[in-house]
């Protein structure tokens, strides 16, 4: 298992080096698939998804020179024959999972059939998360509630035994102060990482490493 859980993308040289290390090859020689699904549960999600893809919002993610980059839309997969989308998925070097609503993303991970493929896929493919795309791999997720899913729908998949709180001290998220996130972490039964947009969590099997040129904090349960 190789995970790179970012707050906002490949925002600095250290995180980029970590990505290349996980890939085992230059980004320009690696192919990737981008999952925009979680973004649709945000206001103006359709516009934001395009901005993430073309690099006009946030930090570099899709526009890193991948060779090639494809789009994997989870909401469409359950109505498409698996032989059309599973082989390209299993051949990809990196799965780029965008941010948005954790609950919406978890729901479609399951409904699409992707969740059941993750154990096999992540034996070779690097999972690169952005915000909610990172959070769902932990034991803690959030929701904006801009959807019609059942309230009991999961908010995370629990692949790693910690919580992640991205966008520390970001101007767009005034509630994401260190003091506020400390209070949130104190309510959880697992360790919590609060990370800013210059920080990522690298996970290789059971080894967790913080990659940062910014600010972060680990809270014990």
Describe this structure in words.
This protein has 221 residues and is an alpha/beta fold. It has one domain: Class I glutamine amidotransferase (GATase) domain (Rossmann fold), CATH 3.40.50.880. The protein has eight helices and ten strands. Strands 3-2-4-5-1-8-9 form a seven-stranded mixed beta sheet. A three-stranded mixed beta sheet has the order 6-7-10, with helices on one face.
**End-to-end distance:** 25 Å
Q: Largest sheet, described in full?
A: 7 strands, mixed
- What's the tally of helices? 8
Uncertain parts: none
How many domains is the backbone divided into?
Answer: 1
Q: Please indicate the percent range of residues in DSSP E strands (runs of 2 or more).
A: 15-25%
Q: What is the C-alpha radius of gyration, as a whole number of Å? A: 16 Å
Q: Which class of secondary structure composition applies to the elements?
A: alpha/beta
By CATH's scheme, which homologous superfamily applies?
Answer: Class I glutamine amidotransferase (GATase) domain
Listing every helix as H and every strand as E from the N terminus to the C terminus, the arrangement reads EHEHEHHEHHEHEHEEEE
CATH class: Alpha Beta
The amount of helix comes to 25-40%
Which architecture per CATH?
3-Layer(aba) Sandwich
CATH topology: Rossmann fold
DSSP strand count: 10
Structural shape: globular
């Amino acid at each position: 298992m190789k995970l790179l859980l970012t707050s906002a993308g490949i925002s600095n040289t250290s995180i980029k080096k970590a990505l290349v290390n996980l890939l085992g090859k230059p980004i320009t020689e690696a192919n990737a698939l981008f999952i925009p699904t979680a973004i649709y549960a945000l206001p103006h999600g359709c516009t934001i998804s395009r901005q993430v893809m073309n690099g006009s919002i946030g930090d570099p993610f899709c526009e890193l020179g991948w060779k090639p980059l494809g789009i994997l839309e989870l909401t469409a997969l359950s109505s498409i024959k698996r032989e059309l989308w599973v082989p390209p998925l299993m051949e990809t070097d990196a799965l780029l999972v965008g941010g948005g609503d954790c609950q919406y993303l978890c729901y479609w991970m399951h409904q699409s059939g992707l969740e059941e493929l993750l154990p096999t896929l992540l034996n070779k493919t690097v999972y690169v998360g952005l915000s909610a795309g990172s959070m769902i791999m932990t034991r803690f997720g959030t929701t904006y509630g801009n959807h019609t899913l059942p309230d009991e729908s999961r908010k995370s998949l629990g692949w790693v035994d910690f919580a992640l709180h991205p966008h520390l001290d970001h101007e767009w998220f005034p509630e994401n102060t260190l003091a506020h996130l400390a209070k949130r972490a104190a309510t959880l039964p697992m360790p919590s990482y609060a990370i800013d947009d210059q920080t990522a969590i690298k996970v290789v099997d059971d080894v967790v490493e913080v990659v940062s040129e910014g600010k972060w904090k680990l809270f014990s349960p």
